[in-house]
Amino acid sequence: MMCDDTRLLLHAYLDDELDAANSAAVAQHMQDCAACTARYGTYATLHKALAQPSLYRRAPDALRQRWSQARPVVAVPQSLPRRRAPLAFAMAAGFAGALLITSPAWFHAWRQPALGDDQLVAEVISGHVRSLQEQHLMDVVSTDQHTVKPWFEGKLDFSPRVKDLASEGFPLIGGRLDAVEGHGVAALIYKRRLHVINLYQWPADVAAAAQVQTQRHGYTVIRWRADGMQFVAISDVNENDLKQFVLAFQNEAGAPPAR
Q1: Torsion angle (degrees, nearest 10) of CA 102, 108, 113, 114
Q2: Mind listing the pLDDT tens digit for each residue in 48-88?
Q3: Per-domain boundaries in the chain
Q4: CATH number given to 113-252
Q5: Strand-pair partners of 226
């Protein structure tokens, strides 16, 4: 991907609106391009600046009174959308962000947090929700692990572990390519009655780690590392069901049971 292409996609990349292939391509390009990394940092700083609570201003009482006389009184929720900053402030924030960014190392530190960080959980939840949109869930549709596993060959630089857990109540229904923290990852899709379970996996360059569980926005996320791989399972099934799924996958994969 060239710089001109990357610049056109940076805003969508920041808002997590790209598909897996384009997201991975943009991340790869920025690893080698200081200019695009700096531009991305400027956008990220501006994005953060526009979300600051200090930008909100309460309307004067006189204006509120005129408005209430013109329209029926409606209860206003405590959490209000933040107004966007004036153009001058936005430009100043952008230039300040550009001055702070001096090397691609900043991009890696900002974009690649540790396993337990909130950013990883946020990306996984975003990817799970995006996958539930029409025609986003699966690239390969099959209940046969011997069909799903070979499909990834040549598309990733590792071979994912694919297990048929239908006997445990979690049938495999397919898989797809996705991206997490700029890595190309394998996403296996399982079902639990009417619920979808996404299981992400990619190579880990750190030692094995016990599972970590997080609950947010109605989703349960369970993460662990084993045998050189990093795994993240996410679903809106109840907590015990997802724990049972993880235990079944770990046992089938030959990993020690979770504690």
Answers
A1: -120
A2: 777 777 777 777 888 777 877 766 555 555 554 555 445 55
A3: 3-53+84-109, 113-252
A4: 3.30.200.100
A5: 229
